[in-house]
């Protein structure tokens, strides 16, 4: 079976599609056609008893002739020879040769959509999966799952038409099923041609144009990002210069403050030091008020706070005891209490705010 290669693009792919379309749209139509951005497409439309030849170019549809299927090879070569060099050949089969329907599937099917559709083929259509070629489009996802338009054609008519066109000297790049848009632009995802029969033709002009388009995109991106990169590098350089100058500036400011007799900061530091209780005073108080089964493993005084770490039989009972000390204003757990699995003792970490009062003595009303 043949499967349409549908995969949702990432944001980079969507951005590049939009950017490329905008660049192409800015070109005059004549220049766009000259550069090959608007390829001529030879469209072969299957009609009752005949094949109509159309040229699609630059949004225009031009009928250039037809070949009777009854006439066979005799009627085809003159016309086929005139269009054999078309950059792209598309065979559009009559809708009565296949089936088109909207299919809904669970959202989980998105991970292996081709395999799920093949498995569901007999339930969704009257055909077996190994007897058809199919593709899908208009894939969308919603709260109720996936929705897509499935096009299915039995293998036999596809093979028959590919063989017929081969005798005419034509190898279509794409075979799709006609719908309500008879002259829609061909898309690689709408293709019933088996992989082993797909043409490997490549247009040098289109290849060159693709390279030029990529170069234009890279140049545009570079033009957008270059100023930002320069600003980032300049900012880093300025930050480094400021870091180098900071010690010298701080030394000069410090010398200026001392020369002007501004001793406020020094006096405040001395006052704070004097008003803070000494560690020995706090330790003496803790030794007096804490229960005998309480062990202090770590003791620090930092920025007017006492940090305590240790173990006891009941950490919660220590909070009111500590808050009852005149040197301590408030007590809070620094971390959650944990219990030692062997001894059953509780490990605690407290932060106690020191109480301060005028005159340099720690007190609390």
From TrEMBL:
UniProt keyword Signal present: no
Stretches that traverse the bilayer: 207-225
Gene3D superfamilies: 3.30.420.380
Keywords assigned: Membrane, Transmembrane, Transmembrane helix
InterPro entries on file: ATPase_NBD, Extracell_DNA_Util/SecSys_Comp, PilN
Name of the protein: Fimbrial assembly protein (PilN)
Annotated source species: Oceanibacterium hippocampi
């Amino acid at each position: 079976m043949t499967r349409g290669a549908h995969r949702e693009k990432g944001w980079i792919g969507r951005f590049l599609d939009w950017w490329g379309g905008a660049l192409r749209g800015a070109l005059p139509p004549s220049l766009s056609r000259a550069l090959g951005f608007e390829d001529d497409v030879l469209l072969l439309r299957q009609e009752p008893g005949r094949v109509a030849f159309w040229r699609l170019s630059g949004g225009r549809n031009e009928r250039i002739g037809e070949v009777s299927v009854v006439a066979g090879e005799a009627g085809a070569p003159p016309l086929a020879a005139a269009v054999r060099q078309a950059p792209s050949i598309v065979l559009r089969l009559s809708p009565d040769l296949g089936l088109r329907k909207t299919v809904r599937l669970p959202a989980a099917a998105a991970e292996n959509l081709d395999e799920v559709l093949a498995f569901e083929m007999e339930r969704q259509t009257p055909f077996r999966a190994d007897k058809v070629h199919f593709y899908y489009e208009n894939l969308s996802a919603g709260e109720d799952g996936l929705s897509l338009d499935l096009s299915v054609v039995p293998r036999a008519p596809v093979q028959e038409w590919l063989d017929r066109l081969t005798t005419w000297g034509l190898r279509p790049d794409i075979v799709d099923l006609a719908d309500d848009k008879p002259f829609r632009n061909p898309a690689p995802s709408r293709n019933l041609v088996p992989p082993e029969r797909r043409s490997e033709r490549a247009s040098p002009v289109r290849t060159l144009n693709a390279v030029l388009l990529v170069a234009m995109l890279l140049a545009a991106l570079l033009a957008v990002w270059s100023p930002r990169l320069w600003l980032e590098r300049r900012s880093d350089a300025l930050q480094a210069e400021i870091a180098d100058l900071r010690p010298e500036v701080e030394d000069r400011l410090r010398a200026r403050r001392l020369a002007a007799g501004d001793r406020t900061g020094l006096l405040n530091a001395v006052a704070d030091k004097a008003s803070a209780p000494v560690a020995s005073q706090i330790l003496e108080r803790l030794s007096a008020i804490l229960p005998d089964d309480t062990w202090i493993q770590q003791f620090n005084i930092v920025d007017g706070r006492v940090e305590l770490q240790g173990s006891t039989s009941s950490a919660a009972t220590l909070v009111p005891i500590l808050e009852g000390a005149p040197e301590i204003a408030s007590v809070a757990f620094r971390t959650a209490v944990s219990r030692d699995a062997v001894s059953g003792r509780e490990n605690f970490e407290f932060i106690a705010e020191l109480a301060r009062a005028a005159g340099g003595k720690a007190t609390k009303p």
